[in-house]
Design brief:
Elements: E1 3-6, E2 19-20, E3 23-24, H1 39-51, E4 58-60, H2 67-70, H3 76-87, E5 91-92, E6 94-95, E7 98-99, H4 103-122, E8 128-131, E9 145-146, H5 153-165, E10 170-174, H6 181-186, E11 193-200, E12 223-228, H7 234-252, E13 256-261, H8 278-295, E14 300-304, H9 313-325, H10 348-361, E15 370-372, E16 375-376
Parallel strand pairs: 1-4, 1-8, 6-9, 8-14, 10-11, 10-13, 11-12, 13-14
Antiparallel strand pairs: 2-3, 5-7, 15-16
Helix pairs in contact: 1-9, 4-5, 7-8, 7-10, 8-9
Amino acid sequence: MKTGYIYDESYFWHDTGTGTLFLPSGGYLQTDVFSEHPETKRRVNNLLERCGLMRELHHIRPRAATLEEIQFLHTSEYIEQVKYLSDTNGGDAGDHAIVGRGSYEIALLSTGGALTAVDSVIEGEVDNAYALTRPPGHHAEPAKGIGFCIFNNVAIAAKYAQKKYGLRKIMVLDWDVHHGNGTEKAFYEDDQVLFISIHEHLNFPNNSGFATDIGEGKGKGYNVNIPLPPGCGTSAYLQTFEQVIKPLADEFQPELIIVSAGQDPGMFDPLGRMRVSADGFGKMTDIMKEIAQKHCNGKLVFCHEGGYSNAYVPFCTLRIIEVLSEKQTDVKDPFAPGTNGYPDKVYEHEQEAINEVIKVQSRYWRNIQVTKVGQLIKKD
């Protein structure tokens, strides 16, 4: 497979100030690197270089998104606010969406990375693509930045694919541990985008991501929230892919798939409470690749979102890119031996959460229906 890899050094220069988890440092809070810090993504590059996989990828330089393209989703007033903060002394563009000096131009380049990935895949330059976008985007709403996100890279990329290429069936999967509220809002009444968010229930943002939030108007049923209880490991995630995501994709038959790839469901993430392994991310990628090859000639775009363990995010992301490129390195997960005490199976309460999603969505999709715990049937 020919896999495109998209990043720019500028991504690592977006300055969110000094932080401790999701709060600004100061008082009794000392600075750490577990906030939205460039190190988690810079170390992805470092590991790709160190193991040699970087040389096997097709490097594509991102372009900056235009103002018109950002306006596919965001209001003029909000864009002007971000630019003003960027040109002056920085500040918060909403709710924990810090803009530093020069961040406006970097955010345009981050969104442009997602657009470049879409172009490269649809036009056949590469088979699939991974864009190491920063700042992330999936929380950003039309008039407000939220949770480290300034412009919604993936939502704008999906709208771009609709407008430029006339696509009428785009599947967006968001596996970031936090609910993809901004992308949900962008397509809540759209039946041409199947948006699926699999996330830790009631983590962030507050009061969003419920299974019963299914879309409105013609978009009913095209918004699929899969809120999982804290503590879910790789097995629960893979169960969700098999029982919900694959059947929905088979019925929807997308022309393009975009994945909001936040590696914060990883077992060592400080802002999540899930237990997905690096190999688990590889297996989830394999399923998405299988879906893409079945329905849209492999047209698959990944855009990096969250992930706050500078130690573990690189290994999770490496597994994803190995699967996309079909290039296996000699890198082993160095943290795997420390997780031997973590039982990884699908617990009853986890299956109940999955079944609840199936019950809600089976009113809109023929392919899924609960028969008994852990089993589905497909209707003819």
